[in-house]
Prior knowledge:
Blueprint: E1 9-12, H1 18-29, E2 33-38, H2 41-50, E3 56-59, H3 65-78, E4 83-88, H4 103-130, E5 134-138, H5 151-171, E6 177-183, H6 190-196, H7 205-223, H8 230-242, E7 249-252, H9 254-262, H10 267-280
Parallel strand pairs: 1-2, 1-4, 2-3, 4-5, 5-6, 6-7
Helix pairs in contact: 1-8, 3-4, 4-5
The protein binds NADP nicotinamide-adenine-dinucleotide phosphate.
NADP nicotinamide-adenine-dinucleotide phosphate binds at residues 13-20, 39-40, 60-63, 89-92, 112, 116, 138, 140, 183, 185-186, 188-190, 193.
Amino acid sequence: MRDMEQEKSIFITGSSTGIGKACALHFDRLGYRVFAGVRKKADADSLRQEASDRLVPVTIDVTDPALIMKAAGNVAKRSGEGLYGLLNNAGIGAGGPVEFLDMEKVESVIRVNLLGMIAVTSAFLPMIRKSRGRIVNIGSISGMLALPGASPYAASKFAVEAFTDSLRLEMRPHGVRVSLVQPGDTESSIWSKVQKNFSPVYRTDQVRSLYGFVIDPIRQALEHPRLQPVEKVVNAVEHAFLSAKPRSRYRVGRDARIFAMVRHLPDSVRDRLVMRGLERQ
Ligand SMILES: NC(=O)c1ccc[n+]([C@@H]2O[C@H](COP(=O)([O-])OP(=O)(O)OC[C@H]3O[C@@H](n4cnc5c(N)ncnc54)[C@H](OP(=O)(O)O)[C@@H]3O)[C@@H](O)[C@H]2O)c1
């Protein structure tokens, strides 16, 4: 690991809760200047209370081009030595059987998880390129293996993987290192949010008779999630930003390592394993 370098600054999207907040507070404790992206004033206030005076909350909604440009301008003005790191973390979940998906939810998951990441990266890239800094994108195990009932989220996270691969190669001649962190199921607010948004349509007899084999395991997983501590993801993000030899991919958790193996199996074998796994839930 490098020594702590006081002047370095990192911009993090989605710092109000979960992985983003844990990373913001962690890098603040390490002595970095953290620009913590939030959408609500209350989240800015609570971060200010929990962190040192170095931490600067920055208002940003990753689906709003004007707010992205304003945030990039603010960070450029206040980052002194230049911006060293960008952590693209903001994300939302959405799922359900394809036949009954709510298209508004599908669009918003793609808008936040994929288009938002691309727009933020593009706006902050000149700063990161100048400092020969680092970019870390938060993907998911759903970006390695697309389970039934997770198509919108998985599609967004597979696309994040493709985007990160392409960006990593574009940044190579510029000395900017790009990493993808793929957490397994992790403690955060995302679980209660997905549970709250679980459409009542999926509880109807019609949907359950057709897709109970998809819906029931999702409900079971949401009601009794087996979650790893958020610190495991924070450690991977720290390695990606601070190690002299950052990895291109970090698979965080036992489920992530299993998904990474299963993805390479022939389709017929993989499908059988996934369906058997659903039956066992
Ligand atoms: N927890 C897991 O099991 C897990 C596993 C794999 C991958 N991930 C990924 O990890 C990342 C962080 O999620 P989390 O688990 O920490 O969930 P979380 O606690 O729900 O945090 C999500 C963050 O994203 C922000 N966000 C949502 N929509 C946004 C928008 N339009 N613009 C800006 N920020 C927005 C939220 O802000 P508000 O509070 O303002 O809504 C919040 O700060 C996501 O990309 C997620 O897909 C999580």
